[in-house]
Design goal:
- The structure is a single chain.
- By secondary structure, this protein is α/β, with parallel strands linked by helices.
- It has one domain: P-loop containing nucleotide triphosphate hydrolases (Rossmann fold), CATH 3.40.50.300.
- The protein is 36% helix and 22% strand.
- The protein has 9 helices and 10 strands.
- The strands form 2 sheets. The protein has a 6-stranded mixed beta sheet, with helices on both faces.
- Strand 7, helix 7 and strand 8 form a beta-alpha-beta unit.
- Helix 5 packs across helix 6.
- The radius of gyration is 19 Å and the shape is globular.
- The termini are far apart.
- The structure holds adenosine-5'-triphosphate (ATP).
- The site of adenosine-5'-triphosphate has 12 residues, from helix 1.
- This is Phosphonate transport system ATP-binding protein.
């Protein structure tokens, strides 16, 4: 479903590679958590996957199509299949939950229609359904600026779902939430992942969350993959190798 071949990224003003010769293959149904300390390259990888960052070399294939060969329009279509969930939610504070969720349809519509907010009944009913799916029916007409962080992230998930995604991509979607709320959000992502048979790839700093929810953990260090396996294999030694400079002392 998603293949990354020999991918490297070096930012213009940088003298090292943020990602270095990455080769990865992802199947539908996998729930992947990407671990790595700050600066390891996690966000850069997610941004390459959804075509927001051009690689310096190498290629990302989405359903066998190389992203680099696509027109802007085709790339936009593919991005709609990859529902993004952001750390800081990326919502419009003064709009209601329903209006924010409907912005998930912006990619499908003409600019004119976006601005005047013409959504047909079917679209509004679909938005209400995904809002119910994330447990926010009673907040539907509240402005999102009045919501808690966890509720805001539920709105973010509903907005991603409205696009009928084939994948969920999350760039630290629970980093600004308390541990209990973070766990609830992961459970919700997992429920939607299972219901819609998605490929889910999430950057996360909380190793326990990754071990509880992921079917596969990938650890990055200095732009390279240093671990790619089942969460049960990510033990103390792997933890140390990922987050510290040297392996754990016996
Ligand atoms: N736009 C940019 N221009 C230059 N260097 C960048 C840019 N974005 C990221 N970098 C550098 O690339 C490396 C990888 O950054 P990236 O944001 O992908 O790491 P990360 O693992 O997501 O970190 P964090 O957990 O702190 O978000 C870092 O050294 C970072 O400073």
């Amino acid at each position: 479903m998603l293949e990354i071949k020999d991918l490297s990224v070096q930012y213009e003003d940088s003298d090292f590679e943020a990602l270095s010769s990455i080769d990865l293959h992802f199947q539908k149904g996998e729930f992947v958590c990407i671990l790595g300390k700050s600066g390891a390259g996690k966000s850069t990888l997610i941004r390459c996957i959804n075509g927001l960052q051009d690689p310096t070399s190498g290629t990302v294939y989405w359903k066998d199509q190389p992203l680099s060969s696509l027109s802007e329009e085709d790339l936009r279509k593919i991005r709609r299949e990859m529902g993004m969930i952001f750390q800081h939610f990326n919502l419009i504070p003064r709009l209601t939950v329903l209006q924010n969720v409907l912005t998930g349809l912006f990619g499908y519509r003409s600019t004119y229609k976006n601005i005047i907010g013409l959504f047909n009944k079917e679209e509004i009913n679909h938005a209400k359904k995904v809002i119910a799916d994330v447990g926010l029916t009673d907040q539907m007409y509240r402005k999102v600026e009045k919501l808690s962080g966890g509720q805001k992230q539920r709105v973010g998930i509903a907005r991603a779902l409205l696009q009928h995604p084939k994948a969920f991509l999350g760039d630290e979607p629970v980093s600004s939430l308390d541990p209990g709320t973070a766990s609830h959000i992961f459970r919700l992502i997992q429920k939607m992942h299972n219901r819609h048979q998605l490929l889910t790839i999430i950057n996360v700093h909380d190793v326990n969350l990754a071990k509880r929810f992921a079917t596969r953990i990938i650890a990055l260090k200095n732009g390279k993959v240093i671990f790619d396996d089942h969460p049960d294999s990510f033990q103390d030694e792997e933890f140390h190798l990922t987050y510290y400079e040297t392996a754990k002392q016996p």
